[in-house]
Design a protein that fits this description.
single chain
Length: about 80
C-alpha cells in the first residue's frame, strides 16, 4: 500500500513540476503491482508524433486521462 501512495505522489509531483524526470525515475517504486507498472508505463512512454494535430491531441488527452485515473486509484 505504501508503494501505491508513493507512486501516486511522485506522479503528481512530476506533473506539477515539483520534481524533475530524473528524480521521478530514481524514486519510483519497483513493484509487481499492475497499477503501479501501468502508471509508470504511461508516464515514460513517448507520445507519438502525428501529422494530424487533432489525432495527436486526442491520443495525448486520452493518455493524460488514464494517468489521472490511475493516480486517483493508487491514492485510495
Amino acid at each position: 500500500m505504501k508503494d501505491r501512495k508513493l507512486a501516486a505522489r511522485l506522479a503528481e509531483e512530476y506533473y506539477s513540476g515539483t520534481i524533475e524526470y530524473k528524480h521521478f525515475m530514481m524514486e519510483y517504486p519497483d513493484n509487481d503491482d499492475n497499477d503501479i507498472f501501468d502508471l509508470f508505463g504511461l508516464i515514460v512512454q513517448k507520445p507519438t508524433v502525428c501529422s494530424f494535430r487533432e489525432e495527436s491531441k486526442h491520443k495525448e488527452d486520452k493518455r493524460m486521462k488514464s494517468i489521472k485515473a490511475l493516480i486517483k486509484k493508487l491514492k485510495q
